[in-house]
Amino acid sequence: MALFERRTRDPRDSIAAFWSWWARARDQVGAGLDRDDLGKLHRDLTGRVRAIHPELAWELTSGRQAKHALVVSPEGSPALRPVTERWLRAGPGPDADWEYYASRQPDPAAYTGSVQLGGRPFHPGSARFGFEIDLDRARVHVAVWHPDFPRLDEAIRLQASFLLLDWALGEDDVERWLGEVKVTSEDQPYGVDALRAAVVELSTHYQHGEWVTVDGFDDRDRPVAVRVRVPFARLDYPLYDLHGRVRMPFEPGSAEEAALDGIQNGLLGRLGDSAVLVAVVTVSGVRTLHLYADSNGVVPDQVATWATQQSIAITQEWRPDPGWEAVRGLY
What number does CATH give the domain 210-328? Predict the structure, then answer.
């Protein structure tokens, strides 16, 4: 039986209202930036963004090609990244005056200036990093240090650390390539350029993605084989917010087991680009496919139809999971 729940919060009306307001306000916002005086427009922009979701943030910055850029950020929340992507795709696209981004972009200039943090000036350029490249997991594990950390409380230190990483790499690549992030009180050996170089080095090994297999045991001491797609693919499919477990039972050593690859490939061929397989877990005579799809699509119905045509008793279960939390423990 297929279990399927849709998201309870639908931001589409608020997104449409935002872009309708923006069409009227964008010239005033640009003029206010030029004068460094946004006033009421600042409050209006905040209200419009928070109407989409109260935990989103926004930034106005210089554009790469356009004069200005508007960023609506999920503030490090994987669950909100599909929302900002939907916001971006509903918008007008870039022109000479404005470009738009659904996550915080790299900002090397931030390391040459100063910001207010914890009520005092904070100089990003003083940050130092330690890192370890983990080729097997396609991750860079990072330690972040800044001489001002001792005077900041824990929450501000953590906020500062992720701002430093976002400015260095961009919000999306922080999630795509970084593994463990440690905030440390010990001076570290490298500057921001070395950190960027480490991420570039890792990315060259996984330009087209790979599958890796890990063997182990589950919490009941049963042998488990896990195949995962690396690097973590969520940001390649930002609208795929629905997680499915498709379970295929088999008798170990039987013809059923030998046929599983063909059955699996048949499903993936039917789904095409409407879903992505990110992990396969085999334990105790059951192969489980972890799929992601757009919750606005019909993939669960496609899988249900396909399952009735197979010779084994295939089951499926679907749950909203915009942050891909269900598979993070497999990486």
Answer: 3.30.70.260
